């Protein structure tokens, strides 16, 4: 299969396949100001990875009577199915279609690897579904659409580093909806790697959706973090432009620890970080003391992603392997944005 540029998707199709990669936020998205439109309270910035792609095919199926969704070979039901059908409803509404679809999605993240698959999942679904229903959207519109499936998915439309605008300056909700999408970020000479340390592959106890709602509603630390996160973003853009990996890492680490502090102060507290997480954080600190720039970030789970220079990635991975006895360590580099895929091998 071969990837093709987005412009080639414009013609009407009844079947389309797309591939998308996960992204990891260096400036976090945490908190919504509109749950239905998935409008965030803060801007965020991420790196799209070159590992664990999701490949999704959407086929219009007028005779099935309802949507049929298969995730990694198993028929989807419950909440995952509900979210995908709601997303397809959005696409159908825009296309003026009532036609059900058959969706087949393969995610290459090893089962329970603790890396969010909703970003790559909804980015691939946005590209495949909009092509199958003939919407002819550009990358910005696809990013906006992917956002409705899962906020972080809007960043996976773009490769490398991407910023997601919250649209906070918009005067109306409709304007904010238009303004809230991701776009690529200008970077200087940076050769980064992200070393993923999986310390616990089990399912999370609280979904990120529920956890961010509780944090916004009850944590006295949420507003101060949101204010400082806006400053972090400005500094992060400058650090990326300067190709300054130390500054990029320092800002990313403090932003992530601040986000987790907001959760710890929620009522009741949300705690994703485990003793194993702290062991890895200690190891990252020791790497820095040994002169290797390595900086940690954590999302809605105990696993740790460590930003470093690509030439240092093997040393960092080796050090983390020593810290996660039962876990696994994978090295990622910046990866491509979501795109349609030819199925005929051309
Ligand atoms: C901690 O994008 O999964 O990974 O919009 O509710 O689907 P929903 O949330 P989701 O949240 C990701 C939160 C995060 C930080 C980030 O990726 O920016």
Automatic annotation (TrEMBL):
InterPro entries: GHMP_kinase_C_sf, Mev_decarb, Mev_diP_decarb, MVD-like_N, Mvd1_C, Ribosomal_Su5_D2-typ_SF, Ribsml_uS5_D2-typ_fold_subgr
Domain Mvd1 C-terminal: 195-323
GTP-binding is among the record's keywords: no
Keywords assigned: ATP-binding, Lipid biosynthesis, Lipid metabolism, Lyase, Nucleotide-binding
Keyword set includes ATP-binding: yes
Enzymatic class: lyase
Superkingdom of the source species: Bacteria
GO cellular component labels: cytosol
GO biological process: isopentenyl diphosphate biosynthetic process, mevalonate pathway
Organismal lineage: Bacteria, Bacillati, Actinomycetota, Actinomycetes, Kitasatosporales
GO molecular function, one term: diphosphomevalonate decarboxylase activity
Domain Diphosphomevalonate decarboxylase-like N-terminal: 20-170
EC number: 4.1.1.33
Protein's name according to its UniProt entry: diphosphomevalonate decarboxylase
One Pfam family recorded for the sequence: MVD-like_N
Family recorded in the similarity comment: Belongs to the diphosphomevalonate decarboxylase family.
């Amino acid at each position: 299969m071969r990837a093709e540029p987005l412009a080639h998707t414009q013609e009407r199709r009844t079947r389309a396949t797309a591939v998308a990669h996960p992204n990891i936020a260096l400036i976090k998205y945490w908190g919504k100001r509109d749950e239905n439109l998935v409008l965030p309270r803060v801007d965020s910035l991420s790196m799209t990875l070159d590992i664990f792609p999701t490949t999704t095919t959407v086929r219009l199926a007028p005779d099935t009577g309802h949507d049929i969704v298969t995730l990694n070979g198993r028929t989807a039901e419950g909440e995952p199915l509900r979210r995908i059908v709601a997303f397809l409803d959005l696409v159908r509404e825009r296309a003026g279609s009532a036609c059900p679809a058959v969706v087949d999605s393969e995610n290459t993240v090893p089962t329970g690897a603790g890396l969010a698959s909703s970003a790559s999942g909804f980015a691939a679904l946005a590209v495949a579904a909009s092509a199958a229903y003939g919407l002819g959207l550009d990358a910005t519109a696809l990013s906006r659409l992917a956002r409705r499936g899962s906020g972080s998915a809007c960043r996976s439309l773009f490769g490398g580093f991407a910023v997601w605008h919250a649209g906070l300056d918009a005067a109306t909700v409709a304007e904010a909806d238009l303004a809230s999408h991701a776009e690529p970020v200008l970077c200087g000479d940076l050769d980064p790697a992200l070393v993923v340390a999986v310390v616990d592959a089990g399912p999370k106890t609280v979904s990120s959706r529920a956890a961010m709602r509780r944090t916004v509603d009850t944590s006295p630390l949420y507003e101060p973090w949101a204010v400082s996160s806006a400053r972090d973003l400005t500094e992060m853009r400058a650090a990326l432009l300067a190709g300054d990996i130390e500054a990029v890492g320092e800002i990313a680490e403090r932003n992530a620890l601040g986000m987790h502090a907001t959760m710890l102060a929620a009522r009741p507290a949300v705690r994703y970080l485990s003793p194993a997480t702290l062991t890895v954080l200690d190891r990252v600190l020791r790497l820095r003391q040994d002169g290797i720039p390595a900086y940690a970030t954590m999302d809605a789970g105990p696993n740790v992603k460590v930003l470093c220079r690509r030439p240092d990635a093997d040393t960092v991975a080796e050090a983390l392997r020593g810290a996660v006895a039962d876990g696994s360590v994978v090295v990622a580099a910046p990866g491509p944005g979501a795109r349609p895929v030819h199925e005929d091998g051309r």
